[in-house]
Write a structure and sequence with these properties.
Blueprint (H helix, E strand, L loop, with lengths): L1 H4 L7 E7 L8 E6 L2 H11 L57 E3 L5 E3 H7 L30 E4 L5 E3 L6 H9 L3 E4 L5 E3 L4 E2 H10 L2
Parallel strand pairs: 1-3
Antiparallel strand pairs: 1-2, 3-4, 5-6, 5-7, 7-8, 8-9
Keywords: Glycosyltransferase, Metal-binding, Transferase, Zinc, Zinc-finger
GO biological process, one term: Ras protein signal transduction
InterPro entries: BRAP2/ETP1_RRM, RBD_domain_sf, RING-H2_BRAP2, Znf_RING, Znf_RING/FYVE/PHD, Znf_UBP
């Protein structure tokens, strides 16, 4: 989604690294550009712009970074060997990754790819380790009826959060009251269809396999 958002400026981007701090459900992207002019143009075009017209409250907030501090090996960081000069290989296309030629994207699990290759991947998981690039459930999430914080399901129609059937079943009660039949479990993205009484993603997988 981030690469699609920045697609018009893709040729001006040298490297994108996804990073985070201790704030829950928040990510940052450290973007390196090929020229000062492209930085200024990117700031004018994207600062304060919503990532999606469907969620206008989530905007792109840009700040200029004067320096990047790197931890030494004694402080918990790692130091590459002085003789290490070989360019890494993109796990998707197996070509060498040269920042001077292609834009590089380093994601949360620290695997790096050509930006164009990751766009074509078409999945939210890492092509190498399958790490999912979505925020983990926030500790602030709770059932809107009984305040339970475990076994939570969110209605895909209206966003109502309720507890599962093994607690007090408020997610199911929401379906009874509203007939909103699709609900997703927070934490693993499993989608339940109350009408069919089964998981939707399992149905799709079975149809694809012909089973």
């Amino acid at each position: 989604d981030l690469l699609t958002f920045m697609a018009p400026c893709r040729e001006d981007i040298k490297h994108v690294r996804i990073i985070r701090d201790s704030s829950p459900n928040q990510y940052m992207a450290l973007v390196t550009f090929r020229s000062p002019e492209s930085i200024e143009q990117f700031y004018k075009s994207y600062n304060g712009v919503p990532f999606s017209s469907l969620e206008p409250e989530w905007c792109c907030n840009l700040v200029f970074v004067s320096r990047v501090e790197i931890l030494s090996e004694d402080e918990g960081g790692s130091v590459a060997p002085v003789s290490h000069t070989e360019l890494p290989t993109c796990p998707v296309c197996l070509e060498r990754m040269d920042e001077s030629v292609d834009g590089i994207l380093t994601i949360m699990c620290n695997h790096a790819f050509h930006g164009n290759c990751l766009v074509k991947w078409g999945d939210i998981s890492c092509p190498v380790c399958r790490y999912v690039q979505t925020p983990e459930p926030s500790a602030e999430n709770h059932c809107l009826e009984c305040m339970a914080t475990e076994s939570l399901w969110i209605c895909l129609i209206c966003g109502h959060v309720g507890c599962g059937r093994y607690l007090q079943g408020h997610a199911y009660q929401h379906y009874i009251d509203t007939h909103h039949c699709y609900s997703m479990q927070l934490g693993n993205n499993s989608v339940w269809d109350y009408v069919g009484d089964n998981f939707v993603h399992r149905i799709l997988q079975n149809k694809a396999d012909g089973k």
